[in-house]
Every structure is written in C-alpha cells, then in structure tokens.
Amino acid sequence: MIFAMPNKPGEFSRFDFPEVLPAPFNGIWAILKNSEMLTWPEKVKFAIGLLPAILGGQSYVEAQDGLTVKEWMRKQGVPDRVTEEVFIAMSKALNFINPDELSMQCILIALNRFLQEKHGSKMAFLDGNPPERLCMPIVNHIQSLGGEVRLNSRIQNIELNNDGTVQSFLLNNGNVIEGDAYVFATPVDILKLLLPENWKAIPYFQRLEKLVGVPVINVHIWFDRKLKNTYDHLLFSRSQLLSVYADMSVTCKEYYNPNQSMLELVFAPGEEWISCSDSDIIDATMKELAKLFPDEISADQSKAKIVKYHVVKTPRSVYKNVPNCEPCRPLQRSPVEGFYLAGDYTKQKYLASMEGAVLSGKLCAQAIVQDYALLDARGKTRLAQASIW
C-alpha cells in the first residue's frame, strides 16, 4: 500500500506486506516497518485501540456500525493524527467519503481482511476497458447458454398481480417482460424510484429509505510525456480532492505506452463538485497533481501538457456507508415471491464495492436455485391461467 506524502511533495510512504509471512504477521510487519507516517507512540495507541476489535471478533465489528471512523478513533483514545495520516485516505478509497461520515464498521471489516488473509491487501487492475474485458465476457456467456441481453431497455414500471407479486416489467419502449423470477440488479436509488406503491409499507422495502448512493467522479487525463514519479500500483493520493489514482500506461495492458502517461483518478468526496463543469474539475485536479508531481506537472501546464481528458460523473454510485446503515441492507431474496435483489447495497461481506456487487449476484443466483421448485410451480400456474383465458 503506497501513500503520497503531502508534507514531502513527490515522495511516497510504503506499507510492504512480506510474501514469506502469513496473515496477520505480514500486516503487523508492514505497519511496524513504516516509519514515515506514524510515530511509535501513535502505533502503540492505535494497536491498543484495536484490541477490542481483535478480541471481540465479528460481533464487536457489527456493533460499531453506529459510530463514524472519527468518533470511534476518539472513543478508543487513538490520536487524531492517525486518522489524518491514514484513515482520511482509506475512507475515501473505501467509500468516497471522509472519516467524519464513514461508519467504522467499514474500516474494521477492511482491516480484518488485511489481518486474516495473506493476500487481503493485494490490488489488481483489469487489463483493458471494462465494457470489453468485464461486461462482454458476461454477455457472451449468457448468450452461449440461450440467454438474451437487451440494451437501451429501461424499466418504466413494475406491474403487479392482485396478490402483490410481479406480473411483468413494462419497458420504456412499450415492451412487456414476463418471467418466473425477477431480479433487480441496479443501484438502490433506481430501485426506490421504481418501487410499486403497494410494496412501500413492507418493512423490507421501508428500510431501503436509509440507503443512498454516494456521488463520485472519475478523471482520466492523457499527458504528452511519460511521468517518472509513478508505480505499477494503485496509489493513495492523500490529497484534499483526490482519493486513489494510477498511471494506467504502466498498470494496464491496453493503455500501455512507453512514451506517454495516462492517469486515472478518483475525485472524492464528489458531492460539492458533481454539478461543476468538466473544465473546473480538471483545473482543480491539475492543482492537486502539481503537489504530487512537483517536478513534472504544474497547474498551468507549463510542464506536462494535457493531450486529452475525460470526466465521468456518477451522481449515485455505491451506497453511502454511514452509521446505522447495516440493519437496512436487504437480503437478496425479497418477501415478494419471485422477486430478488442484487447490488452492493444488499447483504454481502464486501460492502460498497464492485466486488460486493458481484458477490451479491452470486448470492442472488443461489437464492433462486434454492427456490427453484417454488418458482417452477408458479410458472406452471401462470401458464395454466393463461391457457384458460
């Protein structure tokens, strides 16, 4: 894990997890060996503060959902500088928000992974762009098994039967989709917009009101030269406006270029910036990059020049992991027979993340398989009723 050093522009501090040591000793070694970010007294106070989490296990971790990271650290007697040096960057990387908003449960779950799994701290990149390298293989697999993927086919309305179960999905192009099982694999905000009036009084769906997506902005900048102060790794910027970043010309096969760098950055927290123009966001990003690359980048582009840029705004991305959200996260199987949910906001161990969304899909599929006999019977009943009419 590599952190930029704001007080030493252009320099980085590393937490190296030795390959030869098992967890949790590789993580402990990484923390003890790092001398630039935390002093020994700060490390000791942080370790003492963590003892209840280590000894109390999962039940303790779950009980901390009501506290923000900042509140928990102060309650445990951990110096504020530990939060400022490490956990602002970690909070923004995990959920795109600051430690005065993020639930401490999120941090403890992440730390537990580092301490319990040897490779829990490893990071990886797709070797190309997500539509081709992530989405298309999934589409191809579905189609190879006789499935169909329809693009530009948004759901306009969830039509219900008299008993409150799903009759069909009405699409915005007027088409009607009927099935034996219905899965809603969208961000929670979209589900809430389309939730039928009849379902809003059901506690399972009522609890969703607490869950909202967090705004995030991704910035891609292509430069006219190769930046030297980068690594083949994800980097924690520790900047006021940026979260993590990487030089994709180094880390990603498709973007490899020996002569020019392409930086991909997460601009977070994004709430105050989501309505700003792309040029304003780029100007602010360049000012932050000038601190990270003082010898190579200046805000006025008198050093490295921008060849092109792309700003991607997501007003509602993963769910905002603020205190007291955990009890509101639904299981994938809803109380409405034949209706299922998938998404990072549903119950799964990877919280608000792409990995969490993928795992939720697997858990959703398991629920459908478990319900196969019930769904099969429903399908036969529906066909029988259709033949009578």
From TrEMBL:
Name of the protein in question: Phytoene dehydrogenase
GO biological process: carotenoid biosynthetic process
Subunit organization: Homotetramer.
Topological category with respect to the lipid bilayer: Peripheral membrane protein
Molecular-function GO terms, alphabetical: phytoene dehydrogenase activity
Transmembrane spans: none
Reaction it catalyzes: 2 a plastoquinone + 15-cis-phytoene = 9,9',15-tri-cis-zeta-carotene + 2 a plastoquinol
Domain Amine oxidase residues, every copy: 3-368
Cofactor(s) annotated in UniProt: FAD
Main location: plastid
Database matches in Gene3D superfamilies: FAD/NAD(P)-binding domain
EC code: 1.3.5.5
Plastid in keyword set: yes
Source domain of life: Eukaryota
Keywords: Carotenoid biosynthesis, Chloroplast, Chromoplast, Membrane, Oxidoreductase, Plastid
Pathway: Carotenoid biosynthesis; lycopene biosynthesis
Protein location: Plastid, Chloroplast; Plastid, Chromoplast; Membrane
Family statement drawn from the similarity comment of this UniProt entry: Belongs to the carotenoid/retinoid oxidoreductase family.
Keyword Chloroplast assigned: yes
GO CC terms, sorted: chloroplast thylakoid; chromoplast; membrane
